[in-house]
């Protein structure tokens, strides 16, 4: 039966009226037909519903654009190679305050809202924390009515889909655009030329000019981002690459040379084909650099266009006004090319001199660092850069030269440091451009993402620059949006919070959660809290059964670690802990076992396709699970489950159902972490090291409500030295766990190389560089404290409540408000 048979189609929805909404859904099912008009299954229902919601969004998006245009406020542009948006439907109707109306409207077609929303594919245009942070920031920017937009790339295939096969992780292309995305609006009116390769010439007016090479087009797709309870909707503008008809060689095509006729078209397609194309080859590196430049150039041309559009009369001679109207934030070093591109546009296109262009650029751009791992700090080959972007390379060389001269002439004391501070590393073996150094030298502000991390930036990574620019460095502790990460993903707990606080205003003022503290011992609240947790645990258990076939017990302690698989995040320590627990259970008598706290250990996350040890860790978790879960002696007390294809929507099921979550990185290595904030907000207790934002979470929720273990950041260097000097004595429990795996207890796969990475002083595996062996005993002891605490149900629920109550600081509304005031200098611009 078609939608029109059930509800009469109507072109426009009236926002609060379910009948009018149903009419509009029916209208979209008929007149935006992507499917046969005869059927109206859950998938059709999703697309028609989404298009109906899009009508609301577009209205707001247009009003907001016009309002910003008229008021001409200073605007922020967030440049990021990644956005992990996840699903949009529930979030959009939640932010617009029309969830109930839509649920009722959908019922008229015989469907439940949840089932329809479950049809949506995740937009996974990102990897992990950095991409999800960008998405949380957009939600907060819109909610705070800030004039700000995001810019990114419209990857055809986002982050791969993970499947677990016998050999371990398999990667499959994630086809989020397979049908289409109902949220994006293609903007055929917004197209910019993007040049690659070519050469630099002197134009007749004496300016330097980049010419030749090949020119592609960047085409804009807008994704409207609604704020919570506001009329404002901002834009996430994603660029796609295109070639034009003029680039199509009809002569060659008619001559049967089909491939060469459309060469540029196929090169254009490569640019936005995938997120993080492999970069082991030279071609792969070139493609990544092309992607980065594509984002920067298209975005800056668009920003300059808008600067002119808003006040056409200011165009000539008023470039000093630019930084009072535009702030550009670079999300890590991936969009660093924004710096030389802005310089080029200002000098070569707009005719500014170096000093004026530099002043404008410096006052416009700021840089957020997300890692101190040396291997993650981007360096581009000077040769590749010169070939692809010859004019930008000239500009970078000039920035480097002027920086060097400035230090030599003003800071004699720093002469010995200049080489490592320079933008260029002219090592004859491998001359490179250091992108982070370029960001520090050119940006007006550099920030870290948690207090500990920002201090490490100031004291270690960027310490030399600090004495030159003491005011340049700031901290902006990360945050998460409370809308997606509590209100919408955990309706049961949200209702309880609203009931006890007697207001739902916590949704946009998360500090109000502290009001729960005074009820932390209230037995009625305890009963409600425990019931909500149990409901979420049951939903989680169903997901686990659906995707793995493993039955887990909702009465066991749900212990979760979900994040990208990386050695510094130490999923290996978690699984060694589980192996140790399993071995001890095996050694116990049936009677002794009955005193044990039953646990379900869940691990989820994707390993980068070429990261061998990370893939071995995925395989090990799966192998351990296969043995433990089928061992009838102990599987009442322990299950180990690998959750496949971890993504935003999986997180939305897992986090509400969690009771303990692991954030156990080697201290000093996790810049912040943001899932720790999501867990804590959902009443989950953390076991963790003093790393990243864990430090601040522990301060906020109270040290009694956090299971701490492990070495501190300032001990790490010393411990590594001790290890190198052969002074490390491994704990017998650590040896026992490793030996158990080596014995073949979990199958025939050869884990020797993985386990060897934990051995030795230096050399292979860097002699346990991540100090799993050092922290293991205190980790096991902290886990024993968890077991004891969980036996006291009252105590545990109280800890859970106090975690939620202490999470107010970690709202991305707080983070974005600080960026707005302390870095960008922008203020709210609400649509009246
Ligand atoms: O950024 C992460 C950090 O590891 C987290 O500690 C932090 O909480 C978040 C947000 O600030 N970094 C990343 O996610 N980084 C990447 O994904 C990445 C991508 C490409 C190249 C290098 C790093």
Automatic annotation (TrEMBL):
Record key words, sorted: Allosteric enzyme, Carbohydrate metabolism, Glycosyltransferase, Pyridoxal phosphate, Transferase
Instruction: Give the Enzyme Commission number.
Output: 2.4.1.1
GO molecular function terms attached to this record: glycogen phosphorylase activity; pyridoxal phosphate binding
SUPFAM superfamilies named among the record's database cross-references: UDP-Glycosyltransferase/glycogen phosphorylase
Using the record, list the residue span of the signal peptide; answer none if the entry has no such feature. Answer: none
If you read the UniProt record, what top EC class would you report for this enzyme, in one word? transferase
Q: Which family does it belong to?
A: Belongs to the glycogen phosphorylase family.
Cited function:
Allosteric enzyme that catalyzes the rate-limiting step in glycogen catabolism, the phosphorolytic cleavage of glycogen to produce glucose-1-phosphate, and plays a central role in maintaining cellular and organismal glucose homeostasis.
- What protein does this entry describe? Alpha-1,4 glucan phosphorylase
- Organism encoding this protein: Hordeum vulgare subsp. vulgare (Domesticated barley)
């Amino acid at each position: 039966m078609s939608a029109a048979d059930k509800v009469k189609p109507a072109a426009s929805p009236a926002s609060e009226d379910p009948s009018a909404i149903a009419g509009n859904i029916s209208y979209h099912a008929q007149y935006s037909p992507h499917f046969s008009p005869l059927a109206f299954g859950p998938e059709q229902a999703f697309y028609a519903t989404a298009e109906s919601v899009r009508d609301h969004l577009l209205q707001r998006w247009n009003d907001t654009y016009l309002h910003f245009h008229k008021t001409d406020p200073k605007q922020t542009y967030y440049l990021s190679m990644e956005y992990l948006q996840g699903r949009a439907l529930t979030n959009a109707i939640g932010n617009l305050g029309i969830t109930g109306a839509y649920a009722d409207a959908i019922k008229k077609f015989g469907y439940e809202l949840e089932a329809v929303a479950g049809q949506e594919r995740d937009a996974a245009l990102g990897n992990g924390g950095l991409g999800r942070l960008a998405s949380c920031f957009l939600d907060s920017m819109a909610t705070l009515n800030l004039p700000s937009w995001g810019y990114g790339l419209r990857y055809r295939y986002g982050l791969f889909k993970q499947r677990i096969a016998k050999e371990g992780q398999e990667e499959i292309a994630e086809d989020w655009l397979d049908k289409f995305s109902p949220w994006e609006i293609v903007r055929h009116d917004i197209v910019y030329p993007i040049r690659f390769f070519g050469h630099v010439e002197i134009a007749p007016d004496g300016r330097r000019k980049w010419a030749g090479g090949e020119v592609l087009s960047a085409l804009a797709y807008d994704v409207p981002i609604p704020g919570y309870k506001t009329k404002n909707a901002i834009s996430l503008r994603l660029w796609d690459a295109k070639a034009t008809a003029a680039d199509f060689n009809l002569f060659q095509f008619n001559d049967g040379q089909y491939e060469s006729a459309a060469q540029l078209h196929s090169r254009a397609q490569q640019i936005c084909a995938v997120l993080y194309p492999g970069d082991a080859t030279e071609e792969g590196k070139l493609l990544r650099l092309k992607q980065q430049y594509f984002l920067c150039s298209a975005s800056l041309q668009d920003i300059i266009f808008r600067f002119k559009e808003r006040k056409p009369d200011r165009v000539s001679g008023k470039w000093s006004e630019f930084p009072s109207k535009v702030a550009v934030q670079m999300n890590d070093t991936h969009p660093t090319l924004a710096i030389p591109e802005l310089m080029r546009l200002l000098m070569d296109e707009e005719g500014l001199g170096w000093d004026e262009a530099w002043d404008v650029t410096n006052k416009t751009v700021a840089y957020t660092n997300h890692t101190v791992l040396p291997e993650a700090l981007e360096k581009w080959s000077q040769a590749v850069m010169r070939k692809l972007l010859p004019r930008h390379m000239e500009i970078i060389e000039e920035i480097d030269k002027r920086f060097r001269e400035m230090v030599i002439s003003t800071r004699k004391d720093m002469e010995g440091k200049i080489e490592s501070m320079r933008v260029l590393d002219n090592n004859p073996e491998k001359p490179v451009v250091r992108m982070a150094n370029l960001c520090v030298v050119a940006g007006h502000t550099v920030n870290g993402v948690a207090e500990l991390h920002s201090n490490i930036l100031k004291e270690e990574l960027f310490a030399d620059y600090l004495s030159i620019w003491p005011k340049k460095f700031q901290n902006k502790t990360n945050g998460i949006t409370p809308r997606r990460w509590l209100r919408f993903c955990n309706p049961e707990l949200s209702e309880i919070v609203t009931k006890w606080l007697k207001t739902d205003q916590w949704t946009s003022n998360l500090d109000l959660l502290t009001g729960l503290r005074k009820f932390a011992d209230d037995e009625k609240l305890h009963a409600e809290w425990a019931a909500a947790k149990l409901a979420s645990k049951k939903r989680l258990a169903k997901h686990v059964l659906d995707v793995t076939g493993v039955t887990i017990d909702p009465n066991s302690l749900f212990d979760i670690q979900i994040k990208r698989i990386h050695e510094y995040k130490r999923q290996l320590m978690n699984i060694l802990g589980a192996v140790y627990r399993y071995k001890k259970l095996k050694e116990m008598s049936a009677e002794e076992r009955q005193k044990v706290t039953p646990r379900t250990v869940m691990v989820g996350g994707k390993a980068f396709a070429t990261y061998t040890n990370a893939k071995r860790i995925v395989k090990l978790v799966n192998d351990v699970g296969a043995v433990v879960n089928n061992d009838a002696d102990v599987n009442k007390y322990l299950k180990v489950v690998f959750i496949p294809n971890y993504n935003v929507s999986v997180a939305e099921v897992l986090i509400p159902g969690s009771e303990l979550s692991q954030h156990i990185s080697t201290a000093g290595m996790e810049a912040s972490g943001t899932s720790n904030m999501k867990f804590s907000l959902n009443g989950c207790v953390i076991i963790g090291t003093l790393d990243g934002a864990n430090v601040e979470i522990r301060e906020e929720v109270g040290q009694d409500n956090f299971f701490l273990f492990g070495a501190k950041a300032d001990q790490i260097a010393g411990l590594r030295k001790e290890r190198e000097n052969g002074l490390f004595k491994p704990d017998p429990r650590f040896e026992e766990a490793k030996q158990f795996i080596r014995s073949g207890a979990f199958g025939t796969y050869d884990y020797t190389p993985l386990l060897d990475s934990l051995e030795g002083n230096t050399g292979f595996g860097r002699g346990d560089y991540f100090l799993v062996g050092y922290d293991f005993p205190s980790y096991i002891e902290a886990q024993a404290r968890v077991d004891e605490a969980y036996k006291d149900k009252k105590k545990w629920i109280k800890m859970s409540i106090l975690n939620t109550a202490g999470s107010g600081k970690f709202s991305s509304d707080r983070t974005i408000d600080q960026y707005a005031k302390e870095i960008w200098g922008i203020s709210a611009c609400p649509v009246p």
